[in-house]
């Protein structure tokens, strides 16, 4: 499998529309960040059309059985109802370097900006800032993900990045 091509049969969809893929999704996320199966499953089952939403990149060509290749979780930010925090972005190790992460993020951005009508996307990373910068994300201050006050979190070693609606509009025709 090389880079993505227009003929590839990839779909990005909320996991709650594909509950038969929950187990595959748990296994994928736990392959990168081990956690109890029950806790991970509970988190995925909280996915809904509003937020939080767990998005999965699915390959439907493989033996007519859908395969989860990547995942991203979209979480609400209590202090900013017009923004989202993207977390738990992971691509199956066997499929990395083929454009799947870029494809997943482009589809997630479409969902955030066009479907959910949000104005900003935040994320944090430890070692993928180059990848996100290529996608148009800019460095920003750390933020509070849990309270309703917009107090910045300065205790983390993570790198925080942000993309806004105007930045996305200039890049809203992603290449596959």
From TrEMBL:
Domain of life: Eukaryota
InterPro entries in alphabetical order: Acyl_CoA_acyltransferase, GNAT_dom, NAA80
Family matches, as Pfam families: Acetyltransf_1 (PF00583)
Membrane-spanning ranges: none
N-acetyltransferase domain: residues covered: 10-166
The protein's name: N-acetyltransferase domain-containing protein
Lineage: Eukaryota, Metazoa, Ecdysozoa, Arthropoda, Hexapoda
